[in-house]
């Protein structure tokens, strides 16, 4: 009995001790978390304050310099003998540019003098000796000259600006591709490109050059500092302070200064993505491994990226007459800033990365692959040797095959957008249809690469390539066939799709006939097959309309209430009277106290005075002005560029690119997250070409995946 009591007492004591320990930990963990957060904030604050003080010192010391002549050009006689590159001793050597410091009085007028040092890449002292430069060539001509080893070397204006900036700050050892790589030697470029990972990763830090400053550059950098300070506060103070800061920017008319920063060409280059991702990690000797320069103004990239992301997402709140949303810039900011963290967690998405790169520009199409060589290495993709003598088609084909094999994934099929099987010339064979065009247009409607779809129930792909590497063999399930499709797509402005203005004020009026007619053709197809769709989607009006909304918005339907879809369908129906919705919107806007500042004011006045009497024009006006339908209408327009709707034989509703035909087959391929549209080739029942992915409501979550009906699929 006494033993039981002793055992019970011991048990109670143990339980009590554990509870006390848990209680103490419960108190300590928030404290430790708070201390850790405080240390991080203090660390970053100290670092930012140091840069702010340095920036103000430089600004004050250069206050007398005219802004438009900040970095004057070199003048004077130059030797006639041109510089000749010395061959690199080995494939592991690089060149480091050593600038010669002129006298203070001659800094702004003398010709830049330098030497090129041949250095082995694995030299221990190299890590702390040079800065790698990331900049945009901007298509400039080589019409400026420096003295390299006492001989004349042609460079671009942008390159000269960078060198003078580095001289001003006594940064004498740098690596810059235009000079440190012999641009006239494709063989040397092929050797140096694979070394980019180490060149940027071993640098003391990477300097990003956005160009020379303009009138408002200093204000932008000051606002960025304030954005960073706001981000250090907890919610809801962070949100409130950020909104107040947006209001101040708008009230003072400083929005154009931010737009100038967003429109810098550096944001729109493929090479700069790699250069940012490959920058060295933070260390105590270099708290900011990625430093942005705009003339004499400096800012850590992470601070600038956070501020510009916030500005871009909130831009529509205070743009009065236009809504400029540069998707190229947005794509790059997300890629360089967020994907650096994704790489550290080994979670990047290859197809999403390459999709975003479509928004960026290259001079050489092959650089859409070679410009990401180092990034792809981090993904575990070992590419063939860089060879600029290969055709673009050869580079794309080899990369696609090697990437699929290295990642054991067919996710790159998500980027296929139509048949590529046309011969480029008599000597170059046609490109296999499974090879995406990585230089294809950037379409917002294709931005559903990482949405977690599971059309094949999340299985691991089962595939291999033919001996010659041109046929992709896999297995899949033939689930349906396209029965009927539309023929009209919405109007899109000409020019670079990534730079197209969009938003509530997008200039749809220039293509209102095509846009409204496409809407109506979609609606007519929907109504024609309503009985079949009714059976497929649950025998309810709500289920059928929800399916249409999911197809038109590519799964973004949760952002828009059901009433918005009903209003949109009502307004595009030519049999309906839209005057009520139009007048209601007019009445609501006129009653708003802030109507003079309302974002629709200028467009509304243009609409009222345009004198257009076409019925389609009235439809567009109603769609723009209806509070319920306007946001949904914009989303539909953005997500359906170069897409068309179709109905399948089994009664499913979907959308795909413009290359599909009635009778094309719908497959769910093993390990592929979306249904694919395939077209039979010849008499072989297993031979197909692929036309690209489709969004089909009712097939995206593996509902039709049936392992018992697998068949061999050979895609040419």
TrEMBL record:
Tagged with keyword Lipoprotein: no
One matching Pfam family: HET
Protein name per the record: Heterokaryon incompatibility domain-containing protein
Residue spans crossing the bilayer: 20-43, 204-228
UniProt KW Plastid keyword: no
Alphabetically ordered keywords of this record: Membrane, Transmembrane, Transmembrane helix
Gene: 20354018
Protein origin, superkingdom: Eukaryota
Residue ranges of domain Heterokaryon incompatibility in the record: 130-275
Classification lineage: Eukaryota, Fungi, Dikarya, Ascomycota, Pezizomycotina
InterPro entries reported in the protein's UniProt record: HET (IPR010730), HetReg/Transcr_Mod (IPR052895)
Biological source species: Gaeumannomyces tritici (strain R3-111a-1) (Wheat and barley take-all root rot fungus)
């Amino acid at each position: 009995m006494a033993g039981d009591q002793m055992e019970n007492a011991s048990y109670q004591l143990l339980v009590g001790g554990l509870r006390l320990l848990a209680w103490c930990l419960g108190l300590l963990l928030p404290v430790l978390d708070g201390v850790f957060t405080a240390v991080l904030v203090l660390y970053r604050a100290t670092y930012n304050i140091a840069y702010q003080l340095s920036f103000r010192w430089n600004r004050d010391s250069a206050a007398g310099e005219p802004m438009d002549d900040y970095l004057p050009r070199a003048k004077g006689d130059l030797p006639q003998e041109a510089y000749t590159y010395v061959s690199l001793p080995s494939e592991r050597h690089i060149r480091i540019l050593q600038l010669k410091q002129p006298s203070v009085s001659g800094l702004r007028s003398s010709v830049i003098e330098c030497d090129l040092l041949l250095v082995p890449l694995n030299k221990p002292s190299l890590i702390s000796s040079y800065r790698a430069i990331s900049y945009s060539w901007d298509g400039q001509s080589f019409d400026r000259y420096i003295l390299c080893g006492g001989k004349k070397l042609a460079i671009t204006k942008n390159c000269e600006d960078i060198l003078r900036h580095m001289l001003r700050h006594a940064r004498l050892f740098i690596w810059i591709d235009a000079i440190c790589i012999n641009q006239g030697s494709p063989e040397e470029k092929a050797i140096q490109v694979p070394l980019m990972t180490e060149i940027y990763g071993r640098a003391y830090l990477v300097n990003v050059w956005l160009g020379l400053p303009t009138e408002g550059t200093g204000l932008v950098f000051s606002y960025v500092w304030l954005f960073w300070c706001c981000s250090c506060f907890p919610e809801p103070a962070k949100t409130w302070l950020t909104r107040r800061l947006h209001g101040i920017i708008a009230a003072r008319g400083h929005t154009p200064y931010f737009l100038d920063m967003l429109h810098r060409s550096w944001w729109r280059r493929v090479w700069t993505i790699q250069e940012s991702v490959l920058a060295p990690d933070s260390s105590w000797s270099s708290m900011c491994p990625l430093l942005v320069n705009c003339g004499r103004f400096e800012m850590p990239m992470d601070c600038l990226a956070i501020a510009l992301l916030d500005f871009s997402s909130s831009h529509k709140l205070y743009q009065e007459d236009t809504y400029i949303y540069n998707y190229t810039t947005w794509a790059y900011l997300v890629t360089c800033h967020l994907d650096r963290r994704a790489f550290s967690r080994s979670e990047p998405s290859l197809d999403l990365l390459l999709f975003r790169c479509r928004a960026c520009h290259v001079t050489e199409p092959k650089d859409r692959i070679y410009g990401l060589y180092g990034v792809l290495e981090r993904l575990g993709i070992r590419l063939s040797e860089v060879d600029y003598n290969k055709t673009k088609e050869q580079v794309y084909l080899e990369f696609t095959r090697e990437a699929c094999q290295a990642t054991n994934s067919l996710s790159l099929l998500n980027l296929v957008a139509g048949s590529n099987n046309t011969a480029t010339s008599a000597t170059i064979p046609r490109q296999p249809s499974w090879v995406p065009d990585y230089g294809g247009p950037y379409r917002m409607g294709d931005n559903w690469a990482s949405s977690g779809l599971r059309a094949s129930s999340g299985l691991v792909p089962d595939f291999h390539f033919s001996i010659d590497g041109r046929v992709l063999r896999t297995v899949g399930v033939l689930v349906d066939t396209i029965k009927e499709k539309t023929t009209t797509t919405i109007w899109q402005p000409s020019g670079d799709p990534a730079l197209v203005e969009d938003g509530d004020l997008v200039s749809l009026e220039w293509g209102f006939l095509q846009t409204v007619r496409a809407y109506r053709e979609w609606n007519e197809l929907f109504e024609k097959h309503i009985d079949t769709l009714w059976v497929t989607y649950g025998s309810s009006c709500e289920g059928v309309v929800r399916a249409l909304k999911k197809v038109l918005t590519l799964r973004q339907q949760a952002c828009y209430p059901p009433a918005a879809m009903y209003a949109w369908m009502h307004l595009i129906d030519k049999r309906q009277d839209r005057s009520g919705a139009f007048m209601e919107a007019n009445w609501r806007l006129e009653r708003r106290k802030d109507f003079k500042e309302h974002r629709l004011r200028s467009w509304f006045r243009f609409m009222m005075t345009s004198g257009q009497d076409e019925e389609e024009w009235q439809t567009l006006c109603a769609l723009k002005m209806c509070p319920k339908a306007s946001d949904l209408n914009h989303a539909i327009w953005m997500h359906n560029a170069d897409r068309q709707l179709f109905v399948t034989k089994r009664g499913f509703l979907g959308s795909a690119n413009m290359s599909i035909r009635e009778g094309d087959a719908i497959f769910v391929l093993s390990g592929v997250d979306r249904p694919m549209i395939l077209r039979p080739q010849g008499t072989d029942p297993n031979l197909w070409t692929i036309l690209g992915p489709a969004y089909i409501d009712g097939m995206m979550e593996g509902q039709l995946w049936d392992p018992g009906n697998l068949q061999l699929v050979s895609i040419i």
